[in-house]
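Regression report. Comparing outputs from two consecutive submissions.

Submission 1:
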Amino acid sequence: MKIVHFSDTHLGFSEYNKLDPETGINQREQDFYNSWNNIIHQIIEKKPDMVLHAGDLFHTTRPSNRAIAVAFEGIRKISDAGIPFVIVAGNHSTPKIRATGSIFEAISLFTNVNAAYQGRYQRFEICSVDIHCVPHCSLTEELEQAFHDIVIRSDAKQNVLLTHGAWAGSKNYSMGEFNEQHIPNPELKLNMQFDYIALGHYHKHITIADHIIYCGSPERTSFNEAVNTTGYMWLDLDAKKFEHIELPSRKMIKLPPLDCTEFTVAEIYLALEKLSTPELEDALVSLDLKNIQHDSFIKLDWREIDRLFKQVFHLEKTFSHIERGGTTVTSSSFDSLTVEFERYIDRLSLTDLDGEWLKKTGLHYLSEELEE
């Protein structure tokens, strides 16, 4: 029994006001579509017996038409190939109000596709293997009930648990998100045994135990994930061999902090020039300038810093400066006006307004002003 386990594809994720030259859409959004399509291609090529997706198919509960189209095209290819596909909803894809409906209602209509998304336990039997699904549950009581409802059948050849959340153990697997749920170890708490536990939510490939694994994500969503490899799991359930397959993704690099205590402005530029290497080509790069003296700080031309790193896809700058007298150190991070505007809109809780329209319109007028 060969299985592909992947997760946290976050289709529709969008950041930075840069467009893909071929598709004309946000480049970071396209990066996530490219990673999804790469996995779909490998699934069709390798022809596993089953595919498991451990949650956060989309980045939001109300994905754009484009994100839905990309997802449906990939799922259709798996369905047409006759490969069973099982998916659970993650916290990013679960509406706060269940009455508003879910995109997974449409996904469930595909042939060979089983989706668990209603905040309750569901079991799907595929090729004599029971797939026990616990999707994201909005309430802790729902999550506890879902695990309580798991039944291990005596005539099941093998048992796989597919779930999404922060594994509750000796180490912290939290993403720091307000609506995430903590997953208890059912093998300890409920005295159950699974052949494999497929986890989603944590964006790093982690083997908690031989058969309890986070597959990680196929793309990175923040600089906290800069050191993470990206990819999916290839499982041989009969042989109990579980292999992480790495996939290419956009480079994300955190440069070592630069202590500017003794540096003049010219010396800061010189040090940055040495840090700006060809390796950074088309990468997401984080730059941290520490302890900039007050006189140097007010003379720094941030546009010159951008020019020094013109080969990168995006440069995220963080700095701290020492005020006159040396008594206060102020830390800040900032970006271009367009990027900061996008992030501001993303932080708003919009109910009556279309966030994507507001973002697009605002960026249009900001770009016109900046060009003038």
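Submission 2:
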Amino acid sequence: MILMNHDPSVRDGADTSPTPLGRRTRAALHMKRGLAFLRTWFAAQPFWVTVAVLIICAVMSWLEPQSFPTRDNFFNITRNFAYIGIMALGMMAVIITGGIDLSVGSVMGLAGIVCGLVLQAGHSWWLAVLAGLGSGALCGLINGLFVAYVGLPSFVVTLGMLAAARSFAVVLSENKMIYDFGPDGDIFNAIGGGEIAGISNMVWLLLIMAFVFGFVFRFTPWGRHVYAVGGNEAAARLAGVAVNRIKLQVYTLCALTAAIAAVMVVGWQGSAINALGTGYELRVIASTVIGGANLMGGEGGAYAALIGATLIEVIRNSLLMAGIDSNWQGAFVGAFIVLAVLLERIRGSRAD
């Protein structure tokens, strides 16, 4: 005789499907989770920045129907914020750890000059790209070493790199514009200046990088360590997080994104100048802060960097369309930075 395990509490042929009460309980739980997600999303700064972008676009489309809501203007807006958004993704990683990188504009200029010199010497386009990216990564590596292992403040270190990288760019270029890109010039120019389906290559690259950064930030151990360092560095060390290594990596990554932006912009403009990227550090930092990054660390994300860069460019384009002097752009950006920090302070006080 074969003995089989049998649960006497369940009769043969009995209906084991969930009871109506059980189904209602699960439905209520799912609804509660959905409402919690919506409350979190509506309270997040990137959501309201997105709303601001949509409102500005709607108003400008109504005020300037012949010029603002056009394909050409859409192309210009998206292309112009793409390279700032690319740099803001790297800056976001640094700010999440509680640091800051003031050298991204100068690193961009140096990487652009390196690309131009390699092309001018007659080398292949891919070697120029590698050289440009390598020069940017080297600057970031130096920043990271001084911040993580020497213990110097990131503000001081990157301020020094801001001056040094710009000086190297001027010396290497002999203070001249580089526009003769040699036999591979057309290929290189197509990388940054080309388009796919009516959208600039820079925009496609930004979208791909934003997706990758967003995934890494949220779903990988490295991303969780980045947030841990910015949230509480002492606790992160006690938990076994390699804090110094994470800091070294984020500064290297930040400079690398600046070099990527340089490659794209030099290809788009068809020339390399040592003044490339001057003042861009303000726009990049503003993009991250307006998007919702906390300058104290521990908060931020890829979408925040993207939508922050979008808002700044939409404002700039709207001011030009409205006939307002371009010199007022800095005032508007500065006001939005202060407003973003103020909103962050208000949200933090409510949370407490």
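Expected: both submissions complete independently.
Actual: both completed, but the second showed a warning that disappeared on reload.
Relevant detail on submission 2: The domain at 71-351 is CATH 1.10.3470 (ABC transporter involved in vitamin B12 uptake, BtuC).
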